[in-house]
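User: Modeling request: complex.
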Amino acid sequence: MSKSEFTGIIDAHAHSDRKFSWQHSPEQLLNMMKECGIVRSVLTSYWDLPSKADPKALQRFETALKNHDEFIGFLRLNPNDPVAETLLARMAGEKIVSGLKLNPMTSGVLPTSGNSLKLVAASSELGLPVLFHSGDDPFSNPLQIEKVAIDCPEASIIMGHMGGFFYVEEAIRVAKRNSNVYLETSVMPYPEMIRLAAKSIGVEKIFFGSDAPGVNSIVEIQKIIASGLSKKEQENILCKNFLGLISRS
Amino acid sequence: MNKFGIARSIISCFTPPDLSFEKANTIIEKITRENRTRFFGVVRVDPRFDGAKRILRKFLRKKSFVAVSLNPFEQAFKVGDPLAKEIYELAEEFDCPVLLESGFPIVSMPLQVSEVAKEFRKVDFIMTHSGQLMASGQSEYDSLRAMLENGNLYCDTSQIILSGLGGFIEQVVRANEKNSRDRVIFGSNSPMGDVSVELLRVKSANIGEIERNRIFSENALKLFSL
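Assistant: Request completed. Predicted assembly structure:
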């Protein structure tokens, strides 16, 4: 794996977990980070936690966070799980996690459902930003997630994958209309759209993310480099913007 | 191409503003004639329009065209549509691969492409983007199944997101079902795709150098008879 020209990169979206063919240990993620100049990564699971299908998943997640300062925990929850809010409060109170991750498609919960909004509001009260899976999949359209941002104006909403393949323009428009919406770059395949997003909403609202290690971090970094933004702007996206949000939260 | 060390490109037209694929393919023909060693043409047609087969026959007779291209998303038909099947029959007649813009909901998802590959066993199909245009990566399973079940199905690497650890490219190469490692070809989807990013997807995939060279070069050379 080749090294990128940047050091001190912060990755706003990465995973370690075991689910089907995605078997990714913390060590594998750390290796990929090291090879790419990524010093810290958001860590989230592939399962909504706690998981009935994989009862050890929550323990694995907590252990990974406790053992590795490089990880910034974002707790992935199903809003319909009765223990969701309690678990979030506990892990935030113990400073194990710094954010909430929601994947409406895999949870099968509309982002605008009562339970989802309640959880986002709770997260906001705890000072935790919310990373939403956004894009091409059911329940994940940026225009659907926008309603969450409107109904929870105090919440910081990060649109993971910035709309995916087909809804990037929508994601940019939502971020433009709502000061509490940010865009995270993983997976969205068009570097030019990162530049257009920066032009539309300001570079400070864009965070580098990789979705590693299933996705190659070095490819995702290259997207920022190929975007046509200035070196300073690239550095802000790669190294600074996300930490700025976390420290404000 | 020169900047990134790409020796040859397979090129096709966009949907032309006047919808005349005959004119658009003529331009492609001109470009390939002027750059014989660098560009090779793909005949693109809209199967819904009269004259699609005539256009196909006209251009496939020329040496500078090496494949047929269909875009079910832009031209609003499913890959299994009877009109599309008439094109596949013609491709079989000319012993010519068919490039299918894949991964688009409703019209060209991986298992839909797989169905077509099963029905037309004598035609080589290329599933662009490896059929995976979903941010979740959920269509990876279907794409993998399609690739491992069909020895006449190829995939190009453009915009594949799961090229990391245990990713799609690695799985297809390692499984090597029905010689699947010989059926992955490099694609950039340029100019929509950024070439530097797309090259890195393959360069950084967790596969050996021999397999990497196959993806970058040998597999396409054989497929398109270059």
